[in-house]
Write a structure and sequence with these properties.
heterodimer, A: Rossmann fold, 6-stranded mixed beta sheet, globular, B: MetI-like fold, 12 helices, about 80% helix
Chain lengths: ~270, ~300
């Protein structure tokens, strides 16, 4: 069967403001199967987010090939949802308008969009908050809005860029469990970028380890933990600890490389 | 209002046995706020009394030359005369109405054009780079003189005044709209595009709302400028309006008339400012409320 996402030999270079060339990704190859939940871990600045930008079509690759749902990416492919690291809900729209934005942009009538949005708002547990503006919500609630805004389009591919990194630990594991619940009810493939290995393992079927920048796939691990999972408890399972140690061995070297490099560039 | 909200939160947190202190706190806060408001109003009145009283006394004591500077009692009498018996140009309300029409017209035309051009140039890098030097040059010219040109080309009626006011307003609104469009959060644009927004929707749904706080901020200054434009336009030639009234008073060496006209203009500006603030609160409901103290 055809993979949902396929990156082959992808290199991405950016021009820096000073006129130099910065290579974010180098010869990266990875595939994500239909319905698979993949996590991408790596040290800071290794190009994890760039991977998502390439899959979403927001950035074109400098070299190599990006295929989504069997077609080369040109512009933003159909069926993509993207949850950004920073708050990207629209501050001038109410919760209802924010969630209804996707269907509205895709040509639904205002009424249909609103009905659908109400449904999604209650699915992410925000019923009763439809008329609030984002500034009136807590950080966790804003993330729920972003999640509903994303999922209402029923994406076949969900890209998530450290979506919960700004949340406190309790809110975070709540949100992670809810994400797993919503994902299980869909058939979407997920690419979940994070720097937190524990989060990566507890959520996903497969973990990609990216090297210190320029990033490329160092290794990938299958996670054989049963579903449905409870994120808060799964970390006590023996297999979790085993696989954590295994992946951490890989990841540790990259983190050290990246740390040394940062220290040196700071000293220079 | 915020005191009430704080109180609600406090009482839910501390539970029934601690209710009394919370209520005390609320009433104390309210009393404090009321006292503060009274102090401010009192001091405001005092400032007016000191300035106007000093002026009046100065004239009566012969320190200030009444011929050039008039005096508050005479200005008041002049205003009363205008209200009760009308001006040389006709009823005072007509003069106010004419100037208001010119100002509002210039304000509306100038802001709409400013927003349109600001958004277009803000969206197109090429156009902004091409037009940049010309716009800067045009902005550097003291634009009120263009009023003279309009008086020649558009004649003595309302069109010339609207044009003068509009050109003053245009540049202020334009630069703010332009900057506002440039400052739109890239993340929000990326999010809207992923959600399926086309170019047109990006402009109306993301870019304009986002630039709106910049644009509205510029409207406060630009209403004042529209008033300047209308009055200057009248000075270049008119048959009616407050500017014309002031001009006529000046020709008669009637200082009280000049001041009375100024007082009316100031009153119009204050009312307009209140209206714009109300508009701002309505259009930017989504912004967290700012502390009222920072507002003048």
């Amino acid at each position: 069967m055809q993979p949902t996402i396929e990156l082959r030999g992808v290199t991405k270079r950016f021009l820096t403001p000073s006129g130099g060339v910065y290579t974010a990704l180098r010869d990266l190859t990875m595939t994500v199967e239909a319905g698979e939940f993949c996590a991408v871990v790596g040290p800071t600045g290794c190009g994890k987010s760039t991977t998502l930008a390439l899959i979403s079509g927001l950035e074109p690759p400098s070299e190599g090939r990006v295929d989504v749902l069997g077609k080369p990416v040109k512009g933003i492919p159909d069926g993509i949802g993207y949850m950004f690291q920073t708050d990207a809900v629209f501050p001038w729209k109410t919760v209802l308008e924010n969630v209804a934005a996707g269907p509205r942009y895709r040509g639904s009538s205002a009424r249909d969009a609103r009905d659908k949005a109400r449904d999604w708002i209650s699915r992410v547990g925000l019923a009763g908050f439809e008329d609030r503006f984002p500034y009136q919500l807590s950080g966790g609630m804003r993330k729920r809005v972003a999640l509903a805004q994303c999922l209402i389009n029923e994406p076949r591919i969900l890209l998530m860029d450290e979506p919960f990194s700004a949340l406190d630990v309790q809110t975070r594991s709540l949100m992670e469990n809810e994400l797993l619940g919503l994902w299980a009810a869909s058939s979407a493939s997920v690419v979940f970028v994070t720097h937190d290995l524990e989060e990566a393992i507890s959520l996903s079927d497969r973990v990609f380890v990216i090297t210190a920048g320029p990033g490329t796939v160092k290794s990938n691990y299958k996670v054989h933990l049963p579903r449905p999972r409870n994120v808060a408890e799964i970390r006590f399972q023996p297999h979790f600890i085993e696989i954590y140690e295994e992946i951490w061995k890989d990841l540790k070297d990259e983190v050290l490389v990246s740390y040394e490099r940062q220290k040196n560039s700071g000293a220079a | 209002m915020s005191a009430r909200r704080t109180a609600a939160r406090l009482s839910t947190v501390v539970g029934p046995q601690a209710q009394r202190p919370a209520v005390d706190l609320v009433s104390r806060r309210r009393a404090e706020a009321r006292r503060r408001l009274l102090t401010i109003q009192g001091l405001r009145l005092l400032v007016a009394v000191v300035i106007l009283g000093g002026w009046e006394l100065g004239v009566r004591a012969g320190v200030i030359d009444k011929f050039f500077w008039s005096q508050p009692s005479e200005i008041g009498a002049k205003l009363w005369l205008w209200v009760t018996q009308g001006t040389d140009l006709g009823p005072i309300w007509d003069q106010i109405l004419v100037t208001m029409e010119e100002t509002a017209g210039g304000f509306i035309v100038g802001s709409i054009l400013g927003v349109i051009f600001g958004v277009i140039l803000g969206r197109s890098r090429l156009l902004a780079d091409v037009m940049g030097p010309y716009i800067k040059a045009a902005n550097a010219i003291p634009r009120v003189v263009v009023g003279a040109l309009f008086a020649i080309s558009l004649g003595l009626d309302i069109k010339a005044k609207i044009a003068t006011a509009a050109i003053l307003v245009f540049f202020v609104v334009f630069f703010n709209a332009f900057q506002g469009v440039r400052e739109v959060d890239r993340n929000l644009i990326a999010n809207a595009r992923i959600l399926g927004a086309r170019d047109r929707q990006l402009t109306t749904e993301i870019i304009i709302p986002s630039a709106l706080s910049w644009i509205i901020a510029s409207l406060h200054t630009s209403f004042g400028l529209a008033l300047v434009g209308a009055v200057v336009g009248e000075l270049f030639g008119a048959t009616q309006g407050l500017g014309e009234l002031i001009y006529a008073a000046k020709n008669n060496f009637d200082a009280a008339g000049v001041f009375a006209g100024m007082a009316l203009l100031a009153a119009i500006a204050l009312v307009a400012e209140a209206l714009i603030t109300a508009l701002e609160d309505r259009l930017i409901r989504w912004r967290p409320p700012v502390a009222t103290e920072t507002r003048i």
